[in-house]
Sequence to fold (84 residues):
Amino acid sequence: MAYNKKNYYKRIIKVQNVVLERKKENEDLFLKEIYWEDIFPKFDICYRTFNTYLGIPAKRELKKIEEKERIENQKQQLYQPQLW
Fold:
């Protein structure tokens, strides 16, 4: 298993953005149509996974991971010994 889910959340965000773009173009589209026309050929995921992806707050979770990494990097920089 991965150390963190950064790439997983990035993939979910891509799927969610495709759905949002298609819904902006035509509000009458069903999610099943968007899945079969756009998502399945590009991402090769099943319909159940697609529905799961739509329910995950991926942007929020990705921000949490990136914030945690930023804090860890700052800590490492503070505690690095100075070699002269």
